[in-house]
Structure formats: structure tokens, C-alpha cells
Amino acid sequence: MKPELDDLAGSAGEWLRGTGPESDVVISSRVRLARNLDGYPFLTQAAPKQRAEVEALARERIEGNKLGKGMNVLYLALKDLNPIERLFLVERHLISREHAAGDADRGVAVGKREALSIMVNEEDHLRIQVLRSGLQLQEAWDEISKIDDALDRSLTYAFSPQFGYLTACPTNVGTGMRISVMLHLPAVVMTKTLDKILHSLQRINFTVRGLYGEGTQATGDFYQISNQVSLGKSEEELVQEMQGVVPEIAKYEKTWREKLLKEKRTWLEDKVWRAVGTLKNARTISSDETLELLSLLRLGVNLGVVDGVDQRVLNELFVSTQPGHLQKHEHKILEAADRDAVRAAYIRKRLGA
Amino acid sequence: MKPELDDLAGSAGEWLRGTGPESDVVISSRVRLARNLDGYPFLTQAAPKQRAEVEALARERIEGNKLGKGMNVLYLALKDLNPIERLFLVERHLISREHAAGDADRGVAVGKREALSIMVNEEDHLRIQVLRSGLQLQEAWDEISKIDDALDRSLTYAFSPQFGYLTACPTNVGTGMRISVMLHLPAVVMTKTLDKILHSLQRINFTVRGLYGEGTQATGDFYQISNQVSLGKSEEELVQEMQGVVPEIAKYEKTWREKLLKEKRTWLEDKVWRAVGTLKNARTISSDETLELLSLLRLGVNLGVVDGVDQRVLNELFVSTQPGHLQKHEHKILEAADRDAVRAAYIRKRLGA
Question: Which residues of B touch A278 (CB under 8 A)?
């Protein structure tokens, strides 16, 4: 096991710290930039040698403290990581599932508190991501913009005056930016009013995904909203657009929460407390059920229905109960049935059951 | 409220004391005799005046210490009892649902520790029942036989040398006896082998019913087995017959329990502990769900999977969480939704959650 990864384990990372504006509904804000190096073909066209050169160059610049003052990173070459360690990084939202599954020269640079990650040779040469807890899109944008500028000074980006940043997939051409917020919408789900929200979001070209991005199902009432188009709008416009939409959704969710609390208090308390009871007593539990129950517990803590649960423990459980984290914690590969038993034991211990 | 009933509340009564032979599977043994007074028509034919006379006469004999030494009883006239109090007696297996629903002169005599009850003017003039915890059919028969003899000395029973005791319903003619045992068969239910047992029992003319007798569904894995025919066999033969069958079923149940514990321990522990978690945390719970969860908890306690639960508290909860008991405890009529919330709070308190 890479000892560096152990330093990450045991905390929830920036994406689930549970702080920041609107943090009862908005888990985290994320800005991602897709960048490619001028003079090298996109990865789909690149020869192995070129691919290796891109990684070496990018790594050298990233590690060489070229990102700005105090921006120390941990660089991990994926070839040095076993499947559990890769999954661990996916679960911490530091790399994509696709990046984890790849074999040739690839890497990821992880910044302090996991607020920054730079995937090297994922779909594009560089995928820079900055995360902030709660609704902090402007802050995330300011931060990533500085990092992007710093890298731009030591690397030459593939850029067209007409189209903007050139990217492997046409949907990213332009700003190369994707903005996402992770929302926790249990009351909207409970009251079956989610479709209404999804419909409005699709109309304004936002996509909605599950906890682990593209192609994953929404679990535990977590929904990730992203902009779909990055061409024809400035970065600031995209940030403003998302910044305008999210508080509306958060308000909607909070209105439903209050309504449930007022009109169906016993029903709601029952759901939340039964979740607590199951989490504290189950002897085997799947990762999906865990997310669903933790989601209810989070709602209960936010609404003051449940006390005595440490918010940090709760946030940490969302990540640490995932398969990669569990196996890393146990230092071995576990079959699904064994994972479910280990997960249940781990949750009981963390919740002091 | 009748203050006499308060003395009964707070304990589980004989039928759920949880002691006696085979008590991990056999909850209780019951012998019931149907008797009618000579010189009075069956109740279906009786005029109101005759009915009143039967009750007065029976009550006088029962209360007049004619049952044998030390057999003091509490006599309750049903007209003095409100619906909650009647339901309370049903839930304690002291009167039938039909008896509780009737309005004319009826009563019930309840013996010490609720091991004896005599319904007056239910379907027959007298329905005498003796209960024993666990598998104690012979003991119950010896006891009821003495009581029956004692009553016979002061009352003249309707009896035909050819048919035996005459009863309102032909199925009871002969001995007038019904023997029942209440069994707890969670492992048989879990392993879906119940049908096999039911089939064998039906072949030898035994009927299987739920927790509250005729027409009630089996809940919480409780099954009541009774003899169907009381004509043409002596009381001793009927007792011997049942006494021969029950240990076989108990053995079958116990074999499955051990098998589950050996082959599916985590699964079983998970089911049991989740039940504990729900019981200790729910804010609203129906009486059916309560029985199901208590049934799992009972299994867990019997198998040593759960500790720290007082067996007496557990037994008492089976009865005290029933609607009549809850309303009696709260001293008021409660709507179903309110009952479910009160029930959940009561369970949490009793389990020290």
C-alpha cells in the first residue's frame, strides 16, 4: 500500500466536509477544466511514447511547484497503484472511474485537503478539478483559474482563437469547463417532486447524475448537477448561471423539509430513527443501503431530529463505507458478502453502537 | 377502569411466561372444556331470563369457592367492562373475541396468575380453560379435570350416556375438550418448511390457527395447534396424542434453528439485530410489525445471539403492545396512528433505548 494514501484515509476530504454556504443541501461545488498540451496529439491518437512524454512533462511541471504559492501536491502514478487504491481515489472523487480503469501512463496530483486534483492523461492531457464544501462556485473558480494560469505559464495549452481550448471530446471545447454541484435532496425525493426539478434543469441544459458522475445512479438522494455546454459562454457566465440556479433548488428542498417536519413529523422522525437503529445494529449491509440510511441520518441531523451524532463522523462514513475504503482499511481484497459484514461492523464502531 | 384489571396488567400472564418444558418453542399449553347446565337450553335457544339465570347460577358457584382448595377467582361481568377492558382480556387470552363482542349477561372468572379462566355464556354456558407455560398438557389436564369435577358437584352438566357432554356446536360434543398448544416457529417459517408441518397436522385432524384463535392470522411466527375432533376419544387419549406430536414439531424447529445458526449465522444475526434496532428506535410501529420483530428478538435471545434483553420484559412486550393494553395503559381510546406512536414510545422505554 502507498503510505501516502493512508494520510488521506480517515477524513472525508473537501467534497464531504459538510461546511460552507448552503451546506445542509449543497454538499460541494466543483469546477473542472479540460486542457491539452500543444504539440501533442489527443490521447486517442497519441503513440505510447507521446503519452509517456505528456505524463512526464505534466508531472514535472505540477510537482515543480508551478501551481502557485503553497500549492504542494502529492503525485501518484496510476501504474503504482493496485485496484483497491485506485477505487479508493475514485470514492474520494479524486479520479474518475475511467481513469482508475486505465493502464498506460497516467497519474493524479492531489492537493492539500483534497481540494485540488489534476488527472494526467485521463480523457484529456490534463483534467484539473477544484472542490469546495458547500456552495462556493466563485471561490472554486477563482482558485482553479489561478492554478490554470500558473500551469499555462509553464506549459503551452492547445488553444484556438476561434473555438477556445481544444479538447478530446467536442462537448468540452470552448472553456473546457464543467461546473458541478453535489446536492442532497432527501425531502424532494420523499415528496416525489424530483421530476419537476429534473425537468426544469434539463430545459436549461443542465445534466443530473448520481454520486459518482457519468453513468452512475443517484444513491442516498445525492444528485450532481452540471452544465452541459461549455462553448459560447464565458467561464464567469457559466459560474453565474449555476450560482443562480442552485439556491433555488436548495430553497425548494428546504421548504419541503420544513413542510415534512410540520405536517408529517412522526413519520419523518420514524424514518430517520429507524435508519439510526439499522445502522447501529445491522450485521451485514450493502453500500447502497448504507448510503440511503446515512442520507436519512444526515437529514435528521440537519433538521435537529437526531442529536448525539458527530457531523464529522457522519460525513466520513459516507466515504469510508465504500468498497475501496473498506478494503484499504482491512488491507485485503474482500468478496461482496465479506465487505457487507465488515461494513456493518465498521459503522457500528464509528457510531459507538 | 376496573381496578382489578390493573392487577393483571404489567405481567405477561401464564400464557406467555416463557417457562416450562420446551419453552423455547412451546409458548403455552391450553386445555378447554365446553360445559352446559342441565335444565337450561343452549344459549342460541335461551330466553334472556334463562340466560341471566345461567350466569347468576354459574357465578354463584364459581365465586363460592367451589373450584377446589385455594382456587380463588376474580369474576368480571362483561356488561361492567368498556371496550378497551374487553380487548385487554382478549389480548391476555382470557376471553374470546366473540365473548368480548357480546352484550347480554356474560362473564369471566379469572384465576391466579391467569392460569384459569371460565367464560360464562360464551358459546356454551361454561367454557373452562387452564393454561400452562411451555409443554405441560398433562398438568393442564389434571388441573382442569379437578376444577371440572368440583363444578360438577355443585352444578348439573348436560350429559348424554351415548354422546357424552352436550354442547352448542356439534364439533364439541363428546369430551367437550379442545387441547391447544401455542408454538413459536420462526426458523420453520424462515426456511419455508412450514407447509410440510401444516400438511402433516391436517392429516391427523389437527387445526392450525394464529395467535388469537379461530379466524386470526398467524403473526410473529406464532401458531396455535388444536385437536379438531373431541368425539370418540377419551380426554387422556387426546392429551397423549397432542403430547406425542408437539415434541416432534419442536425438534424440527430446533433443528432448523441450529442449521441456520451454523450455515447462515451472519444473515440470522443481522435479522435479529436489525429487529432490535428498529424496536429501540422506531417512532411509530404497528402491532403486526411489533409482533414480527419481537418474534425475531425472542429467537435471538433463545439462540444466545442477543444478550442484555430481559426475558420477562420481552414476554411482557408481546402482550402489552397490543391495542387494548396500550389504551388501557394510556387510560384513553386512541386512533390507530396514535396507538402506533404510543406503542413505539412504550417499547423504547421498556427496552431501555
Answer: 274, 277-278
pTM of the complete model? 0.90
Residue B267 vs residues A201, B175, B188, B270, B306: alpha-carbon distances, Å: 42, 47, 15, 5, 14
Closest residue, chain B, to A276 (C-alpha)? B281
CATH of the domain at B83: 3.30.590.10
Q: How far apart are CA A84 and CA A324, in angstroms?
A: 5
Distance, in Å, from the CA atom of B323 to the CA atom of B326, rounded to the nearest integer, reads: 5
Which pLDDT score, from 0 to 100, does residue B68 have?
A: 65
Cα distance between residue A339 and residue A330, in whole Å? 10
Distance between CA atoms of residues A17 and A27, nearest Å: 8
Interface test with B, best of A261, A272, A273 (most B CBs within 10 A): A273
Q: Where are the alpha helices (DSSP H) in A9-126?
A: 48-63, 83-91, 97-101
| Tens-place pLDDT, residues A205-220 | 888 887 766 555 667 7
Say whether A237 sits in a helix, a strand or coil: helix
Predicted local confidence at residue B230, as pLDDT: 64
Which of A202, A226, A256 corresponds to the end of one domain?
A256
Q: For residues A227 and A206, what is the distance between their CA atoms, to the nearest angstrom? A: 5
> Which of B75, B144, B153 lies closest to B115, judged by CA?
B144
pLDDT score for A64 = 82
Distance of CA B226 to the CA centre of its chain: 12
**Residues spanned by the domain of B286:** 264-350
What per-residue confidence (pLDDT) applies to A353? 78
Q: Which residue of A267, A273, A283 is in closest CB contact with B273?
A: A283
Q: Which of B236, B256, B276 marks a domain boundary?
A: B256
**Alpha-carbon distance A276 to nearest alpha carbon in chain B (angstroms):** 7
- Does A136 score more than 90 pLDDT? yes
Distance CA(B20)–CA(A187), nearest Å, equals 51
Q: Around A300, how many Cα atoms within 13 Å sit in the side-chain half-sphere?
A: 25
Q: Residue B253 corresponds to which cell in the numbers above?
A: 424447529
Question: Position of cell 373450584?
Answer: B67
Residue that has been written with the C-alpha cell 461546473 in this structure: A179
Cα distance between residue A170 and residue A164, in whole Å: 11
Amino acid at position A85, single letter: E
Dist CA B36 CA B11 (whole Å): 32
Do both B37 and B69 map to the same domain?
yes
Contact flag B282-A276 (C-beta cutoff 8 Å):
no
Contacts of B279 in chain A (CB under 8 A): 277
| Interface probe, candidates B274, B293, B303, chain A, greatest A C-beta count within 10 A | B274
Contacts (Cβ under 8 Å, ≥6 apart) of A123: A34, A43, A98, A167, A168, A169
My answer on whether B95 and B122 are in the same domain is yes
Long-range contact set of residues A39-47: C-beta below 8 Å, sequence gap at least 24:
A39/A156, A40/A125, A42/A124, A42/A167, A42/A168, A43/A121, A43/A123, A43/A124, A43/A125, A43/A168, A44/A168
pLDDT of residue A112: 85
Distance from C-alpha of A314 to C-alpha of A298, rounded to nearest angstrom: 7
Q: What is the pLDDT of residues A64-120, one digit of tens each?
A: 866 666 678 899 999 999 999 999 999 999 999 999 999 889 999 999 889 999 999
Residues B173 and B30 in one domain: yes
Instruction: Show the low-confidence residues of chain B (pLDDT under 50).
Output: none
pLDDT average, residue stretch A292-314: 91
